[in-house]
């Protein structure tokens, strides 16, 4: 598919492009690195029970599956995506201030829903800006994006120590300050104009290209990925609460989350050396088995007396159950989806991941309320269903990778 020509202005590389994008990624992931591990602790501290926490976490996931593709598609049509990014970050700051109000269930849920609309598009829009630099000027995407992973890791660690000193009430403050820093970095965002090709989550691209992607292999594979990913919902929603309930300090909770990130990054670094010759279906089977092992192990660590070291060991499986899933999905798309349909493929995978994650997160509240840490056992059949779908995908895999 031919692309429209670049304007004379778009042919000029913005000054310090890589540095400016690196700052955007670094500030972007501070708020996210605080929200995922520590927001459930703040909700619990405000007196919400497990089922209410699950609804507050899950409802925004359902909403953003619909709103994010719409907003990213609208950003593609704007005069400059950087301006849309800045507006969304500013809106996110204003909305997040709602967490400073008296914490009623309806109020926190409303703030979380509104926040998901403005917050979720930040990452795909930053990716879109960075990838425009990759295509036009040969910039190195990983050299820019790695600062997001580094800041996420640092936030996991620092957040734990901050909460150990201040308690969970610091969570909304950290998120608010981090978003303010993201706004400052966003004001310096390089202006790239409209993209020459729709963003990875473009609703229009999905509508036009999705029918050709609805083949057995692609559907089984992306459904399997979505369901294996969703088996992590109990972990994301309630593991921090569980760790605190057995007397693990906030600082150690932060280190445990950070160790999962370290393991994930290590898999990204060494994947090609270890699994370059392994088929994508086998990669996903290994990832699914790693998920099952992880959910079997989690409830046994503390009763068996393996202590904090045992949790660090099981967190190492993040490299298998999360990183290999992410890599496997992109490997499958790269091998079997032609370039002009890549955006639609990413969008469909995003939908499946988001929908199933939201559904399992919603169910995780009652599970934790009734079973505690044994709720991890309910994630085992979910991961097995994902594995079965990957098996069906393997049986219908194309004989040759796509060319071009």
TrEMBL record:
<feature type="transmembrane region" description="Helical">
    <location>
        <begin position="107"/>
        <end position="126"/>
    </location>
</feature>
<keyword id="KW-1003">Cell membrane</keyword>
<dbReference type="InterPro" id="IPR036259">
    <property type="entry name" value="MFS_trans_sf"/>
</dbReference>
<feature type="transmembrane region" description="Helical">
    <location>
        <begin position="21"/>
        <end position="41"/>
    </location>
</feature>
<keyword id="KW-0472">Membrane</keyword>
<feature type="transmembrane region" description="Helical">
    <location>
        <begin position="283"/>
        <end position="302"/>
    </location>
</feature>
<feature type="transmembrane region" description="Helical">
    <location>
        <begin position="53"/>
        <end position="75"/>
    </location>
</feature>
<dbReference type="GO" id="GO:0030395">
    <property type="term" value="F:lactose binding"/>
</dbReference>
<keyword id="KW-0812">Transmembrane</keyword>
<feature type="transmembrane region" description="Helical">
    <location>
        <begin position="375"/>
        <end position="394"/>
    </location>
</feature>
<feature type="transmembrane region" description="Helical">
    <location>
        <begin position="147"/>
        <end position="164"/>
    </location>
</feature>
<feature type="transmembrane region" description="Helical">
    <location>
        <begin position="170"/>
        <end position="189"/>
    </location>
</feature>
<dbReference type="Pfam" id="PF12832">
    <property type="entry name" value="MFS_1_like"/>
</dbReference>
<feature type="domain" description="Major facilitator superfamily associated">
    <location>
        <begin position="20"/>
        <end position="370"/>
    </location>
</feature>
<dbReference type="InterPro" id="IPR026032">
    <property type="entry name" value="HcaT-like"/>
</dbReference>
<keyword id="KW-0997">Cell inner membrane</keyword>
<protein>
    <submittedName>
        <fullName>MFS transporter</fullName>
    </submittedName>
</protein>
<feature type="transmembrane region" description="Helical">
    <location>
        <begin position="82"/>
        <end position="101"/>
    </location>
</feature>
<dbReference type="GO" id="GO:0015528">
    <property type="term" value="F:lactose:proton symporter activity"/>
</dbReference>
<feature type="transmembrane region" description="Helical">
    <location>
        <begin position="217"/>
        <end position="239"/>
    </location>
</feature>
<dbReference type="GO" id="GO:0005886">
    <property type="term" value="C:plasma membrane"/>
</dbReference>
<feature type="transmembrane region" description="Helical">
    <location>
        <begin position="308"/>
        <end position="329"/>
    </location>
</feature>
<feature type="transmembrane region" description="Helical">
    <location>
        <begin position="350"/>
        <end position="369"/>
    </location>
</feature>
<keyword id="KW-0813">Transport</keyword>
<keyword id="KW-1133">Transmembrane helix</keyword>
<feature type="transmembrane region" description="Helical">
    <location>
        <begin position="251"/>
        <end position="271"/>
    </location>
</feature>
<dbReference type="InterPro" id="IPR024989">
    <property type="entry name" value="MFS_assoc_dom"/>
</dbReference>
């Amino acid at each position: 598919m031919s692309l429209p020509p670049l304007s004379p202005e778009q042919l000029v590389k913005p000054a310090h492009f890589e540095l400016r994008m690196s700052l955007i990624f670094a500030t972007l992931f501070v708020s996210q690195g605080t929200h995922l591990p520590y927001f459930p602790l703040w909700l619990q501290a405000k007196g919400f029970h497990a089922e209410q926490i699950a609804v507050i976490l899950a409802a925004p996931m359902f909403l953003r599956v619909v709103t994010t593709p719409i907003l990213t598609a609208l950003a593609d049509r704007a005069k400059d995506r950087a301006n849309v990014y800045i507006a969304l970050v500013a809106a996110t700051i204003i909305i997040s201030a709602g967490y400073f109000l008296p914490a009623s269930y309806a109020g926190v849920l409303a703030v979380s829903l509104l926040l998901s609309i403005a917050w979720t598009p930040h990452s795909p829009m930053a990716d879109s800006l960075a990838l425009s630099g990759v295509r036009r000027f040969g910039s190195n995407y990983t050299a820019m994006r790695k600062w997001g992973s580094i800041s996420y890791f640092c936030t996991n660690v620092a957040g734990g120590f901050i909460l150990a000193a201040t308690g969970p009430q610091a969570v909304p403050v950290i998120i608010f300050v981090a978003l303010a820093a993201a706004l400052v970095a966003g004001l310096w965002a390089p202006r790239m104009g409209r993209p020459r090709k729709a963003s990875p989550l473009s609703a229009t691209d999905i509508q036009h290209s999705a029918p050709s992607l609805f083949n057995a292999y692609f559907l089984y594979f992306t459904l399997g990925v979505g369901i294996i990913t969703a088996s992590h919902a109990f972990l994301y929603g309630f593991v921090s609460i569980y760790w605190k309930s057995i007397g693990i300090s906030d600082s150690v909770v932060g280190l445990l989350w950070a160790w999962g990130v370290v393991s994930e990054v290590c898999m990204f670094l060494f994947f090609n050396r270890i699994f370059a010759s392994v088929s994508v279906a086998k990669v996903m089977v290994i990832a699914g088995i790693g998920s099952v092992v992880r959910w079997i192990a989690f409830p046994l660590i503390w009763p068996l007396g393996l202590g904090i070291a045992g949790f660090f060991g099981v967190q190492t499986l993040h490299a298998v159950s999360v990183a290999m899933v992410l890599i496997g999905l992109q490997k499958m798309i790269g091998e079997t989806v032609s370039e002009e349909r890549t955006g639609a493929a990413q969008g469909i995978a995003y939908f499946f991941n988001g929908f199933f994650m939201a559904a399992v997160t919603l169910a995780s509240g009652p599970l934790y309320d009734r079973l505690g840490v044994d709720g991890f056992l309910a994630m085992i059949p979910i991961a097995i269903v994902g594995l079965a779908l990957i098996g069906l995908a393997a049986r219908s895999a194309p004989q040759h990778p796509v060319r071009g």
